[in-house]
Amino acid sequence: xxxxxxxxxxxxxxxxxxxxxxxxxxxxxxxxxxxxxxxxxxxxxxxxxxxxxxxxxxxxxxxxxxxxxxxxxxxxxxxxxxxxxxxxxxxxxxxxxxxxxxxxxxxxxxxxxxxxxxxxxxxxxxxxxxxxxxxxxxxxxxxxxxxxxxxxxxxxxxxxxxxxxxxxxxxxxxxxxxxxxxxxxxxxxxxxxxxxxxxxxxxxxxxxxxxxxxxxxxxxxxxxxxxxxxxxxxxxxxxxxxxxxxxxxxxxxxxx
Length: 256
What we know:
Elements: H1 17-34, H2 45-61, H3 70-109, E1 113-117, E2 123-127, E3 136-140, E4 149-153, E5 155-159, H4 161-164, E6 170-173, E7 180-181, E8 186-187, E9 191-196, H5 204-214, H6 221-250
Antiparallel strand pairs: 1-2, 1-3, 3-9, 4-7, 4-9, 5-6, 5-8
Helix pairs in contact: 1-3, 2-3, 3-5
């Protein structure tokens, strides 16, 4: 019986490091300015206070005859703006890396085809997106496994680096605890008959993409402690600044 031929999906060569970095930092640089919106900085109260201080210091640069020399105020404003922009840039860069990872996972599953077994025992080439739970597909050496499933016949080596990061191929065979295969992994040798166990949108790859897209980095205990310390110091500083004038007035004094 002649088996339908599936055109192998070429693995995309890794982008050069310089190009990849450029593709990330340019949008991140733009987002650093977009994130200057105080509504977005509400999640980082310390940076919000720094931005407000930067705005006030910038205003002082254009007000003549103030106690603070213009040159000093300009220096302070530059450093404050640099601090806020750098923090925004670092956050945007981390978000961009997560999005790039999700896009990479999506690209790996596009254009996949599969040999689906029909009722009369023959095999028909269909898009991998059309596979449903219970379908049986045949995968041969060099092809991508089109979806999560269980091996019902055959034994072969599978490269699962795209999912697990493990570079060494693993053996998959019917029966036992080595029968489960994951979609978007490549068959290195021999052939397998695989029974699909997940509908579109329910596979391991789909769950990974959802986790990457919806992931929010959790702060470490040190970062939480530092935030608490900075918030406390900021409140103390604001309290001191606000009460200076009333105390000076109460003591019949004046501030320079």
